[in-house]
Specification:
alpha/beta; seven-stranded mixed sheet; 20% strand
């Protein structure tokens, strides 16, 4: 992702409906892990169980969610611009490539990679590194854009290589040695809006919205939490996996 897009993301992520709901989704996943005894609350002494990595952290919005839930997170960012923004926010930052993580094997309890794999030609290498750095039993939370029928100028502008379907996403993670525990669609109800807008797009749609529009979209995406739509086509796929 270009530096200008990262600065734009950092400026938008605190208020934009899409980023707010994605952080809420991450927070819910972390609470479920804690309830299952797989989070920092179950850790007696600091160790691999409570270390987390946020791959492609950009401005660090998700990294801050990890920290708020008791994890000891590191924000990993490839671009100097994104790393600088995260550091300015007081986060522990590493500049590195997701295909060569500068961390010991089996050193992490959790890896978060939201909207990262689609930027990487060799996505199987990034998946293998996620598996390598997770301790046995450690969790990976993955999000990717889905369905090549939604491919548009937006994908080109933000540096996407592909959009996934369920089979291709599961395949790349299972080939890396991860076990997929759950896979679901996200941003289902707004898919028709996204498809319409993407057909007209000439570049990135990471833009500040009028307040009333942002509030309306936020209401729709929030309502999706309570509706049985996770198996329907959406704009994104979400996945939870673990290292056996």
């Amino acid at each position: 992702m270009e530096a200008t897009e990262i600065r734009k993301l950092a400026a938008l992520e605190d208020t934009h409906w899409w980023y707010r709901e994605r952080r809420a989704l991450l927070a819910r996943s972390l609470r479920r892990l804690a309830a299952a005894g797989q989070g920092p609350t179950a850790t007696v002494a600091a160790g691999s169980s409570d270390r987390a990595l946020d791959i492609g952290a950009a401005g660090g919005g998700n990294t801050r969610v990890l920290r708020a839930h008791g994890w000891r997170p590191v924000a990993l960012e490839y671009s100097p611009e994104g790393a600088q923004v995260a550091a300015e926010r007081g986060l522990h930052v590493l500049r590195a490539d997701a295909r060569q993580l500068p961390l010991p094997s089996a050193s992490l309890g959790l890896v978060v990679a939201f909207d990262i794999l689609e930027h990487i030609d060799e996505d199987q290498l990034a998946a293998a590194e996620i598996r390598r750095t997770l301790r046995p039993g450690g969790t990976a939370l993955i999000a990717v854009p889905c369905d090549m029928r939604l491919w548009s100028a937006h994908d080109v502008a933000v540096g996407h290589v592909r959009r996934y379907d369920r089979t291709s996403l599961v395949s790349v993670l299972e080939q890396a040695g991860l076990v997929v525990d759950e896979l679901w669609s996200w941003n289902v109800m707004l898919r028709p809006v996204a498809a319409w807008r993407r057909r007209k797009s000439t570049g990135s749609d990471l833009d500040e919205l009028p307040g009333v529009v942002n509030l309306g979209l936020r209401a729709v995406i929030t309502a999706e939490r309570y509706l049985p739509v996770k198996s329907l086509p959406g704009v994104s796929l979400m996945l939870r996996a673990h290292r056996p």
